[in-house]
């Protein structure tokens, strides 16, 4: 069944295909995604003090997120390969000292959006944090990966209404 606007990943025979975006206009597109990795306070203290045996956890996770955004079409079936104009990944300790909030901001000028690139950046960044910290904290949890905003293209602006979570300050708005 075609989705809104007539775009679908199915051909007339019901087979999966990459959506043809050739007739779509090239526009500036931006997407922001966020996620959270929760952990013990002691684990966050080790990360922030540079005491993890695997090195600078935040730097490695940030680079992993950026690299993942650039390789999204290799990871997600039917996702268009895009030349990205910008990728920023920020990692911020939560106010309650129990985790790290990840935010990826991805931009391009293209015929299709960068939501998947932003979500992939957050996901791989979170997995990298887990991998680098699992030896000291097996209870790490990856959660709340979600699209926050996206702009550009025919569908225009999307803005998620953020809900405050325990341990977090209210979202700036």
TrEMBL record:
Substrate binds at residues 78-80, 116-117. Keywords: Lyase, Molybdenum cofactor biosynthesis. GO terms for molecular function: cyclic pyranopterin monophosphate synthase activity. The active site is at 131. It is an enzyme of class 4 (lyase). The keyword Secreted does not apply. Its EC number is 4.6.1.17. The keyword Lyase applies. Residues 18-153 form the Molybdopterin cofactor biosynthesis C (MoaC) domain. It catalyses: (8S)-3',8-cyclo-7,8-dihydroguanosine 5'-triphosphate = cyclic pyranopterin phosphate + diphosphate. InterPro entries: MoaC (IPR023045), MoaC_bact/euk (IPR047594), MoaC_sf (IPR036522), MoCo_biosynth_MoaA/MoaC (IPR050105), Mopterin_CF_biosynth-C_dom (IPR002820). CDD domains: MoaC_PE (cd01420). GO terms for biological process: Mo-molybdopterin cofactor biosynthetic process. Pathway: Cofactor biosynthesis; molybdopterin biosynthesis. PANTHER family: CYCLIC PYRANOPTERIN MONOPHOSPHATE SYNTHASE, MOLYBDOPTERIN COFACTOR SYNTHESIS PROTEIN A. Belongs to the MoaC family. Catalyzes the conversion of (8S)-3',8-cyclo-7,8-dihydroguanosine 5'-triphosphate to cyclic pyranopterin monophosphate (cPMP). Homohexamer; trimer of dimers. This is Cyclic pyranopterin monophosphate synthase. It comes from Gluconacetobacter aggeris.
């Amino acid at each position: 069944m075609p989705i809104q606007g007539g775009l679908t990943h199915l051909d007339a025979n019901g087979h999966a295909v990459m959506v043809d975006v050739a007739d779509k206009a090239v526009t500036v597109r931006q997407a922001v995604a966020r996620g959270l990795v929760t952990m013990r306070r002691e684990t966050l203290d080790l990360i922030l003090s540079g005491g993890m045996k695997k090195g600078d956890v935040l730097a490695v996770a940030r680079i992993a997120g950026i690299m993942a955004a650039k390789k999204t079409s290799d990871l997600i079936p039917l996702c268009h390969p895009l030349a990205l104009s910008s990728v920023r990944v920020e990692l911020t300790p939560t106010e309650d000292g129990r985790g790290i909030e990840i935010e990826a901001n991805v931009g391009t000028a293209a015929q299709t959006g960068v939501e998947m690139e932003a979500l992939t950046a957050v996901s791989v960044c979170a997995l990298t944090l887990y991998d680098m910290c699992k030896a000291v904290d097996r209870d790490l949890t990856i959660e709340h990966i979600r699209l926050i905003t996206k702009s550009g293209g025919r569908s225009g602006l999307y803005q998620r209404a953020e809900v405050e979570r325990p341990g977090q300050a209210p979202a700036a708005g």
